[in-house]
Design brief:
mainly alpha, 3-stranded antiparallel β-sheet, 7 helices, 4% strand
Length: 208
């Protein structure tokens, strides 16, 4: 008799062998997301569009934790920001600040400090608009202290980002065709003046 093997759910993320070195100055390539992860991400974005923020926050948070566990800190940080926004939409300020703090510190420690000024400003503005002034102040304090320990100041990073911002020609689609996430010019990865990459699923998008 043949014994049936027990069913095992495939992991959300699989480790992939390292890629060959990229040419100097070329944007880093990220491995494509497995279909199951892409479907989960698309579902979370549909839930956001339908106003079901709590369920979306759970999905974003789960995907973020798995991405971090498997060594994808930039991907994890982007998903944590989405989880923070979904939590804030349900007025769960504590969960929103926790996820935003995790995301911003991941960007700092992963060498992506240029992502911090816009996301910090956007998040603290959203918190203050809902009356969470103390939470916004605490988030700013933690991020500024962490930048200081890395030898940066928030003002310095902001000025550098503004000075080094590449030329962008055209307008991005409102949503990513791959996962349905909103495409915000200051949050996507720009390859050149016309081409950007979705920070959540890696789909390449053309500005028109």
């Amino acid at each position: 008799m043949f014994r049936r093997r027990p069913f095992r759910r495939p992991p959300l993320f699989r480790r992939r062998p390292p890629r060959s070195p990229r040419p100097p100055g070329a944007p880093p390539l990220r491995p494509p997301l497995p279909p199951r992860v892409r479907r989960a991400l698309a579902r979370a974005n549909r839930l956001i569009a339908d106003g079901q923020f709590a369920e979306a926050a759970d999905i974003f948070g789960h995907l973020a934790d798995k991405a971090k566990e498997l060594g994808r800190p930039i991907h994890a940080a982007g998903l944590m920001i989405q989880a923070a926004r979904a939590h804030l939409a349900t007025d769960d300020a504590d969960a929103a600040v926790k996820r935003a703090k995790q995301a911003l510190l991941l960007f700092v420690h992963s060498g992506r400090v240029g992502r911090v000024p816009h996301l910090l400003a956007h998040t603290t503005e959203a918190l203050r608009n809902k009356g969470y002034h103390a939470e916004a102040d605490e988030l700013e304090r933690v991020v500024e202290e962490e930048l200081g320990e890395m030898g940066f100041s928030l003002e310095e990073v902001t000025q550098r980002v503004t000075a080094e911002r590449p030329e962008r020609l055209g307008t991005l689609p409102a949503q990513c065709a791959g996962c349905g996430a909103p495409l915000i010019p200051d949050e996507v990865e720009w390859h050149d003046a016309h081409t950007a990459e979705c920070p959540y699923c890696g789909t390449v998008v053309k500005a028109t």
